[in-house]
Each structure stands twice: as C-alpha cells, then as structure tokens.
Design goal:
Layout: H1 3-18, H2 25-37, H3 42-48, H4 53-60, H5 65-79, H6 87-101, E1 116-121, E2 131-135, H7 141-160, E3 164-166, H8 168-177, H9 180-190, H10 196-208, H11 211-220, E4 234-244, E5 254-263, H12 268-282, H13 302-312, E6 320-326, E7 333-338, E8 344-349, H14 351-366, E9 372-373, H15 380-394, E10 407-409, E11 412-414, E12 422-427, E13 435-439
Parallel strand pairs: 2-3, 6-12
Antiparallel strand pairs: 1-5, 2-4, 4-5, 6-7, 7-8, 9-11, 10-11, 12-13
Helix pairs in contact: 1-2, 1-3, 1-4, 1-5, 2-5, 5-6, 6-12, 7-12, 9-10, 14-15
Length: about 450
C-alpha cells in the first residue's frame, strides 16, 4: 500500500468522523485504531486535508477488491461508533459502496461506464440538500419516456427517504406554466443589476432548458463539474461538501460540492429502489421532505435556488485547447489556449510531454478505452505532473483549469474538457502559414 493510499484513507476516515458535526470519544478511539492498523502517519493525516473526498475514493479504486471491502467495513464501524448513522454518514457510505464495491462488478458490455465521484468548486451553502438529478449529455428517448411515465412515483418514494428527485423537463414545465411577467419580475428583483435584455435571456433559459443543456451549460461550463464528456443516462446524487483544507493557518478555504454519478444500466425504478434500500439499511435517523406543489409559485430554495443563481451569473468562457505540434522555426512542441477574442496563449512542452498530453486527449475522445493507459511509458506519472505544473504556471488565469489537466481515472489518464473545445492544428501549406484547426473527434492522422 502506497503513501497515496494511506492519505486517501485518512481523508475518508476524517470525513466520516466529521459527518455528524460531533466528534465522539469513541470515534477518536476507532480512528487511532485504524491509523495503527493501516500505518497511517500524522503527516498523512495532515496531507489528507489537501485533497477532496472524491480524490480519495478514486485513489482507493486502485486497491484489490478484498482490501476495499475491508476498508468499507472499518468506515461503517466508525459511522456506528456512536450507535447512530446520520443521513450525511449514510450518503458517504452510498458513495463508497457504489464506487469501491459495486465498481468491481463486471458489466455486460452495454453499460458504458461505472459509478464515479465528481466535484465542483462552490460556495459553502450551494447544492446543500439531498438530491437525485437525472442527467444525460445527449438525449435518450427511451430513458426520457420511462421518466415521464414514472415521474410521480419517483418523486414520492424519494421524498419519503429525504431526497428530492429532479427531472429538468418537469422543472421547466413549472416555469412555463407561471405568469411570464411574474417570473420576469422575480428575476429582476433577485438580480437587480442585470439589464432588461438580460432578464429576457434568463427567462428564456429557464423556459427552454433541456437536460442536455443543464449538463453542458450549468454542470460542465458553469460549475466545472468534472463529469465524463459523454455521460450516459445517469443519476447524480449530492453527497455533501468537501472542505480543502480542513484547517489552515493561512490561505483560503475552498468548498467543493461532491456528487455521485451512477449510470442507469437497468430501469430507473430498480436503480432508485436499490439506492434507497441501501440508504435506509444504514441510516438511523429517517427523515422525509415536504415541498409545496402549488402551481404558479416561484421556488427559491435548494436546487431551484442554486440553478437560478447560476443562470443569472454571467458564465466565464473557457478557451479552446489546440494541439499545435512542432513549431517549424523553434522546433518546440506547443499547445495553445485560444480565447474568444482570438488571442492565443501558448505553452511549450518536451516531445515526450507533448506526446503524452496529445495521446491523453486523443484516447479520451476517440478510443473505447477512454483514456491513456498508466502503462503507456515508464515515467508517465512525473510527465503528467509536469504538464499540470506548466499549465498552472504559464496560464494562471485559465478558466476551469482542472478540465485542461490530465487526470487519473482508474488505470488511465483522461481529460474532462468538453470534446467540442479540443482541436488539432493541421498545416495546409508547406510554408506553415496556412492551417486548419480540426476538431479532435474528426482528426485522423494520415
């Protein structure tokens, strides 16, 4: 077991202890026992404060299933050390169950991905309730028909367990059914600094939004959620907030909202029933939520408030990522970040760094393996670290910088950037003056 594994374990142990906002003597006793059993040092406990819960879980995916199951049992013991498992603890257990245990199950080849954790930097109070949100990156007619058919049942059974089931088309129906001027007046009141034309734009976005728009324009572009660019029909479950660092004498404290994304491989009622069944089997304090279904009222709380706030705020624009290849004059290998105004900021990489970065992008979007294998070359890990460092150092104002950096996902490195923003520059003349930027999904090296 590596230092990274022990640090990841320390983060998860710490999150579980703090989940109920009360640190019991029994929890500290169990923590010390686990630290001894796994040889976790105080330095590793300190380092754990600098990573997110989702990062820790992704790191532990590398361990054999037997070790993952044993660690899950230890974490469950911590959750019950005070004889009560609160909802926040149960949500963390759901994340561990689906990502560390269920992740080991073989698929039949039709399920495009397994459960995984994602996060986005948000304010302390953003997305702070329990949600199940239907998510898709491209329209799936069969799943949407299934959702329409069972929507009321899904809402009812999830509410009984303390969750709010969100289906974007139904939310849009609510806005469309309200008095138009009333909604625009609310927008004007809640965002007094925006102009009349912008109010109309916000209203149009509220009334025209699809699930795919929500994925692309809200989750991917605005919230920087590091979801897969080709997310299949899935359930997105808010499991809480990661604070990085936990304790800091200096520097800012960052808040990340963590989500569990579970692809829907059977029918959605079966998946929801499985999730709720596991949740109810663990949680000691059961709660239900009551939400007024009065038509014509503008809801400004929970998910509705978070969505509205992000729609009102002007979105920062992420630049295109362009692989330039070798410069004919300098011989350097370059990558460009092209902004809306046409300005390009370039970074220079060694031939090996460029090849690794390009292969990560190419195999993320054009390979069934979904990423570049960690065994691609002997020193891929330090090269990846150097690429990240160069991007951070030379493009410090890069919007959504994490999406441009190669990230390990299981046994491969991937990019989380939308495929529509990645290009390969191809020269169309011998002098190199003329070129064409080819979308990476259409690039075919001759």
């Amino acid at each position: 077991m590596t230092r990274e594994h022990r640090t990841a374990m320390a983060r998860i142990i710490s999150d579980m202890i703090k989940a109920d906002n009360i640190i019991e003597e029994s929890e500290i006793r169990d923590m010390k026992k686990l630290m001894s059993g796994y040889s976790i040092t105080h330095q590793e406990m300190s380092d754990a404060r600098k990573i997110r819960f989702s990062d820790a879980v992704n790191t532990l995916k590398e361990l054999p299933i037997r070790e993952r199951k044993a660690f899950f049992d230890h974490i469950y013991s911590i959750a019950l050390s005070d004889n009560i498992c609160v909802p926040r603890e149960a949500l963390l257990l759901i994340a561990l169950q689906y990502c560390l245990i269920e992740d080991n199950k073989k698929t039949d080849g039709t399920t495009p991905s397994k459960p995984y954790l994602i996060s986005c930097p948000t304010g302390e109070a953003s997305f702070n309730d329990q949600y199940m949100v239907y998510l898709e990156s491209s329209y799936d007619e069969e799943r949407n028909e299934e959702l329409k058919q069972h929507f009321r049942l899904l809402v009812t059974i999830t509410r009984l367990c303390g969750f709010n089931f969100i289906y974007i088309p139904k939310m849009v129906e609510e806005f469309r059914g309200m008095n138009k001027q009333y909604v625009k007046d609310v927008i004007s009141y809640m965002a007094p600094n925006i102009e009349e034309t912008s109010i109309q734009q916000v209203y149009d976005r509220l009334c025209d939004m699809t699930t795919v728009d929500f994925f692309r324009n809200v989750l991917y572009e605005r919230l920087q959620v590091k979801a897969l660019h080709n997310t299949p029909p899935s359930l997105l479950i808010n499991i809480g907030t990661s604070v990085v660092p936990y304790c800091s004498a200096g520097g800012s404290i960052q808040y990340y909202t963590e989500f569990l994304c579970i692809p829907i491989s059977s029918n959605i009622l079966t998946l929801v029933d499985d999730i709720l069944g596991f949740y109810q089997s663990k949680v000691s304090i059961r709660q239900s939520i009551t939400i007024s279904d009065s038509k014509g009222q503008f809801k400004y709380f929970g998910f509705y408030k978070a969505l509205f706030d992000f729609l009102v705020a002007p979105p920062p624009v992420a630049p295109d990522l362009i692989f330039l290849g070798q410069d004919m004059k300098t011989g350097r290998y370059q990558v460009a970040f092209k902004f809306d105004d046409g300005n390009e900021k370039k970074i220079c990489l060694t031939p090996q760094q460029y090849d690794i970065y390009f292969q990560v992008a190419l195999r993320t979007y054009k390979s069934r393996l979904k990423g570049l294998s960690v065994s691609y070359c002997n020193n891929i890990k330090p090269s990846i670290a150097k690429i990240k460092s160069i991007i951070s150092g030379e493009i410090p104002d890069l919007t959504y910088s994490d999406q441009y950096k190669p990230e390990r996902d299981g046994n491969a490195y991937v990019l989380r950037l939308d495929k529509s923003k990645i290009f390969v520059r191809v020269r169309t003349s011998n002098c190199g003056c003329d070129y064409e930027d080819i979308p990476i999904v259409k690039y075919d090296k001759k």
